[in-house]
Design a protein that fits this description.
The protein is mainly α. The chain is built from 11 helices and no strands. The chain has one domain. Helix 3 runs antiparallel to helix 8 and helix 6 packs across helix 9.
Length: about 290
């Protein structure tokens, strides 16, 4: 059977080793490399971003030939990237809402544990730029480094590993549904616990997008768009909105009503939209 158009060429054992290596490098980088660089440079921000850059660049170097081949295509590629950029807007909003739903759901079982997820504290919400999050006072070079890691290198690496290498092989063995679920589980466990629900749903939707459209570059653009929106949204007050809850009332559905409503409206709409997407004419040659 011919490989699907989103397939990046690499032997199966190499894919397994790459995933294990990527997971070890990502977790090890967060635990050892980034703190080491932070101490050496005397700068926590630079240590974190340079450590992440080293991990992402090393992995991208292994899959670069496949990514270069997948990025060719001219005008149709640009149209697909524009479509992914557009859909990334409601997907970013859905991500914020799912975080609220995750906290509310956990609060039904343990309000104490839910409060620990985000360090909740009753406080007024101030909508507007928060320099401690956006880093606007840090200068253009630091902002550029942050965006390079969060919007370009991170999305490209994760999509290449999970949806360019792992998903096609699971798809060939188990079919779309189970392969999508297994890919989402692997993708989710490498992210923070307080983002598990939003990360899992994001993975399910982006993998479905790839299966429908057949272009890895589009899901990289989609992923980068969502990361950019999460950074902007958190810096403009959405993060404060999520955390400004009295821990004693976390389990009350009324306090999370807007988040629940957004999920109820957006999740089915985005799922339906993506399932109706048609593959581009040139997808078979991607």
């Amino acid at each position: 059977m011919a490989p699907p158009p989103w397939h990046l060429p690499m032997p199966r054992i190499s894919v397994i080793l790459l995933f294990l290596g990527f997971a070890a490098a990502l977790l090890g980088g967060e635990a050892f490399l980034q703190p080491l660089l932070a101490r050496a440079l005397g700068d926590a921000f630079l240590g974190e971003k340079l450590g992440a850059t080293a991990v992402y660049v090393a992995v991208l170097g292994l899959v670069a030939p496949g990514l270069v081949a997948a990025s060719r295509g001219g005008g149709q590629r640009l149209a697909g990237a524009a479509l992914a950029l557009l859909v990334g807007l409601p997907l970013g909003l859905l991500d914020f809402a799912l975080t609220g739903v995750e906290v509310w759901g956990l609060a039904q079982v343990s309000p104490t544990q839910a409060a620990r997820l985000w360090d909740f504290a009753e406080a007024p919400v101030r909508w507007g730029p928060d320099n401690s999050i956006l880093g606007l006072q840090a200068g253009p070079l630091r902002i550029a480094l942050f965006l390079l890691v969060q919007v370009v290198l991170g999305p490209a690496t994760e999509e290449a590993v999970f949806r360019g290498l792992i998903f096609p092989r699971l798809h060939a063995r188990f079919g779309l549904g189970l392969a999508n679920l297994l890919t989402a589980c692997l993708f989710t466990v490498l992210h923070p616990v307080n983002q598990y629900l939003s990360t899992c749903v994001f993975s399910l939707l982006t993998t479905l997008w790839l299966a429908r459209r057949g272009r890895l570059t589009e899901v990289i653009v989609l992923h980068g768009t969502v990361n950019l929106l999460l950074w902007l949204g958190t810096g403009l007050g959405a993060g404060a909105y999520l955390k400004s809850r009295d821990p004693a009332t976390l389990a009350a559905v009324a306090s999370w009503g807007p988040m629940v409503l957004i999920v109820v409206l957006l999740l089915p709409a985005l799922w339906l939209l993506i399932t109706r997407l048609r593959p581009p004419v040139a997808a078979a040659t991607a």
